[in-house]
Amino acid sequence: MVIIQIANLVATSFPNGMSHYLIGGILIGGSVVFMYLTTGQIVGASTMLETTVSYYSKLEWFQQEGFVSSRDWRLVFTIGLIVGAAGYTLVSGAAQWMTEVQWWRLLIGGLFIGIGARLGKGCTSGHGICGLASFSPTSLINVIVFLGIAIIVAHLTEIAGVVP
Amino acid sequence: MNRSRKILVAAFIGGIIFGIGLTISKMTHPEVVLDFLQLDDLGLLLVMGGGATVAAIGFQIGTRTGKSAPLTGKKYGLREREFDKDVIIGGVIFGIGWGIAGVCPGPAFASLGIGNYAIVWSIAGMILGAHIHGFIRENRSS
């Protein structure tokens, strides 16, 4: 009985299956470990937003040593993200896919994400994967806060009838 | 090949693997992330949990050797950030954005690779956000 209940709970919690999520997660973790063991760098995707601005902004904040010295590899890593996604899509024969989420949601969301990720010292990859993997209390607190707030906001958006 | 060139090659390979992982797990689809945030499909927890578990094993291996990374000479350490009120405020702002768009920085770029060009709106927003953050920091320090 208990086993059937657990099986039902899993089926309703993961209506689209579990394996592709786990495989994807393991590859993401594998990428982090690869970068770590070869370069000692712990990657986070959002730092790139600021280091790339350092190429053209004269503001002292963007010209800090840590940004200027890591901007090349962080930009290359980001290009790798695009190439990896495009390569996998081509090889797997998947069709091009376009979101139906409205442009203003993407834009306003992106604006908040850019400010929040940098002020909060990391995002879903920096805090969510690498920070948690480092057992960092700072990252755990940040993840709990952004997860909780995002779940509330996503529900409010749905209640407000904004679909998609 | 000199050291800095090797670091760029490593970053390119690392980015490709990361991008494939984001694509397979469909984190490139804002709809999938929003499904998670609306608690209809908890798959994102498997992505984050799976990634963090693998990363934790790698970090433990690295730090326990007490050695340095071959390409940079950087000592293997952990990701530690000082806790202050910015961690909370930043988390709240990030959470609002994530809840509105279902997008975060890594998946936004990978999403370009699957042909989801509408994501340019989010990338533009994030870069603008980074500028605003830099402006805030600049004024705070002066």
Which bin fits the share of residues in helices of chain B?
over 70%
N-to-C series of helices and strands of chain B: HHHHHH
Secondary structure tally, helices of chain B:
6
Over all CA atoms, what is the radius of gyration of chain B? 18 Å
- Summing up helix and strand content along with how strands pair, one would put the structural category of chain B as mainly alpha
Strand content range of chain A: under 5%
Question: Could you list the spans of chain B in which at least 5 consecutive residues all have pLDDT below 50?
Answer: none
The major beta sheet of chain B can be summarized as: none
Largest interface: A-B, 121 and 118 residues
> Number of DSSP helices of chain A?
7
Please tell me what the overall shape of chain B is.
globular
Molecular structure report:
The complex is a heterodimer of chains A (164) and B (142). With 164 residues, chain A is mainly α. Chain A has a domain at 98-164. Chain A is 71% helix and 0% strand. In chain A, helix 3 crosses helix 4 and helix 6 (126-133) runs antiparallel to helix 7. The radius of gyration of chain A is 19 Å and the shape is globular. Chain A starts with a helix and ends in a 5-residue tail after the last helix. The mean pLDDT of chain A is 96. With 142 residues, chain B is mostly helical. Chain B has one domain (3-141). Chain B has helices at residues 3-24, 30-37, 43-65, 85-101, 105-113, 120-141. The radius of gyration of chain B is 18 Å and the shape is globular. The interface between A and B is large, with 121 and 118 residues.
